Amino acid sequence: MKLSGKHPFFRDLTYVVGLSVCLLSLLLVGWRVIPAVPTPPIVALIMPPDSNFTNLWTAPTEAQLKRLPTNQQSLIRYGRDLIAHTANYLGPKGSVMRMSNGMNCQNCHLNAGTQPWGNNYGAVQATYPKFRERSGTVENQVKRVNDCFQRSLNGRPLDSTSREMRGILAYIKWLGSDVPPKQIPRGAGLFKLKGLSRPANSDKGLTLYTQKCQVCHQANGEGVLAEGGKSYTYPPLWGTHSYNQGAGLFRLSNLAGYVRYNMPLGATYEAPQLTDEEAWDLAAYINSQPRPAGDISRDWPNLAGKPFDHPFGPYTDPFSEQQHKYGPFKPIKDWKEAHK
Questions:
Q1: Domains of the chain
Q2: Where is the composition biased (Basic and acidic residues) (predicted)?
Q3: For 232, phi and psi rounded to 5 degrees?
């Protein structure tokens, strides 16, 4: 059978071919007119590390200690043991003498004085003797060590010629053996926190203490004695056997800097568990609790040299003892700066 051009078959075929050409044209035009949108590159935001927590001072190694003469090694090791286990030798049940409150030096100077930002001894050898406003004199290391015994350990001073003093001094000297004279390495001592714009709040501090500290230091702050009762597994934070009001940690800025990067148990500058604000409030609660007074009658002979957070008057500035203890401290600092 012969099909003519008017047959329905040809009309349908023409329609299909035309539709296909139109679709193909649109597709080709689409490729030209609407190009594919490129995927934006992924840019990693790399923040520089905080310089306060990089390249920190570290203590000499055991391998370095073993290079020293045997007699030096022995004295340094004894000094280290005295720092770590002070109460076993010099506490209320001490084997050498009974002259302190039962705390260990490393309760305040963590890891036997080697912890970065843990009130370590990294700068002591390099910076002493030095003038200190608190005594108004040039102090040597013997004076500095005995200040700790009389204030933080609420005890009596060591004889400067005793084996115990010689051991502690030898250990401190060894710890600072790599630090140039007059230099303070990064990470030495305590971290200086930025102040609050309000007074530190001891009520908020109580809440934090209950949540984060009480399990170790107990509800009444008395700590937990180790087996045998010679020293503390967890030291008292206030009360008869804690540091007295002349101790460095009784200044709020020092205690806040201490707890910020070292407490609760397990916290470090690399893995802190408190914010700045929490550290200030917690310090306020701890230092609002009762503790031994200590003799501070001869401290700060130059009143203008008193630090902004020394909690006892008289002062040369117009601010109250309450503000000097809890803050805010910026107005005090500003006044001091303006009246130099």
A1: 64-175 (1.10.760.10), 190-294+318-328 (1.10.760.10)
A2: 331-340
A3: -110, 135
